[in-house]
Amino acid sequence: MKKHLTIALFLISIVSFSQDLAILKYKGGGDWYSNPTALPNLIKFCNENIDTKMNEKPETVEAGSTDIFQYPLLHMTGHGNVFFSEDEAKNLRDYLISGGFLHIDDNYGMQQYITKELKKVFPNQELKELPASHDIFKTAFAFPKGLPKIHEHDGKRPQAFGLFHENRLVLVFTVESDLGDGWEDQEVHNDPADIRLKALQMGANIVKYAFEN
To answer: What CATH number corresponds to the domain at position 175?
Structure first.
């Protein structure tokens, strides 16, 4: 029992004091590896604009691995199916309630799958839309209307949903925005400079919020 407590405290201390992010690899067949240039570009933007000192080559960690506890922020994306085993769901829950933060960015087509799988992580919670007044929309850059629209898919408005533990926001799910596409190299999607900047600024807000809360 004492040994398990020591390990738990060690893992919590890593989450609390490290400053890096990682890509979350998951099962189910969805393309967790989407947008390969996105996170390196976001990290570079954060290092240059909000004084982070992150490794510009993010590591990949699996949902069931204790490696996730090395990172205060995990990023997850994709277009398709997502599956968490019971052990993976427990591992993610332990990570989130011990100080970790998960950003899930729907790259289009992910919502129906991740919504179901998150019920394994927090069975008694529903995703709640974050109001435009939430601190995550103003930690570094101001977004008075909330989540910005980066790519058009179904003509729906962009939304950011959250899950909470003891009043702390531990997970943000961004939908109908496609922030990750806006973080990619310019030639990938040929987005205008102002759109890419909005995506990077909102991404920086998520990073800053995750690191400071």
So the answer is: 3.40.50.12140
Residue 19 has pLDDT above 90, yes or no: no
Please state, as a whole number, how many other Cβ atoms lie within 10 Å of the Cβ of residue 164.
13
Collapsing DSSP states into helix, strand and coil, what is residue 31? Answer: coil
212 closest CA partner among 76, 13, 46, 16: 16
Q: For the chain, what is the domain count?
A: 1
21-25 and 59-62 strand pairing: parallel
23 compared with 155, residue with greater pLDDT: 23
For residue 89, the model assigns a pLDDT of 98
CA atoms within 13 A on the CB side of 180: 23
CB atoms within 10 A of CB 195: 16
Q: Supply the range of the domain harboring residue 145.
A: 2-212
Nearest Cα residue to 11 out of 88, 66, 86, 74 = 66
Provide mean pLDDT across the span 54-82. Answer: 94
pLDDT tops 60 at residue 98: yes
Cα–Cα distance between 75 and 61 in angstroms, integer?
10
